[in-house]
Write a structure and sequence with these properties.
Layout: H1 14-65
Region (Disordered): 1-42
Keywords: Membrane, Transmembrane, Transmembrane helix
Transmembrane segments: 44-65
Length: 66
């Protein structure tokens, strides 16, 4: 049988569907790995936000006590 997704009588080849499903699953497993590289940028944003919050709280406390 040739590498044809459809057999001569018009029915889909089950192996073609399996290959497409495996390609789909492989795409899904690659996507989270690519997003883990960008999580470093979000960590920097969280750290900057925490530092800014501490500075604001310290400034408010200094003004309230001063």
């Amino acid at each position: 049988m040739a590498n044809n997704p459809q057999s001569p009588n018009g029915n889909q080849d089950p192996s073609g569907s399996t290959q497409m499903f495996r390609a789909f699953v492989d795409e899904g497993t690659r996507q989270p790995q690519a997003s883990t590289g960008s999580s470093g940028g979000s960590r920097v944003g969280v750290i900057v936000g925490v530092i800014a919050a501490v500075v604001i709280v310290a400034a408010v406390a200094w003004l309230a006590l001063g």
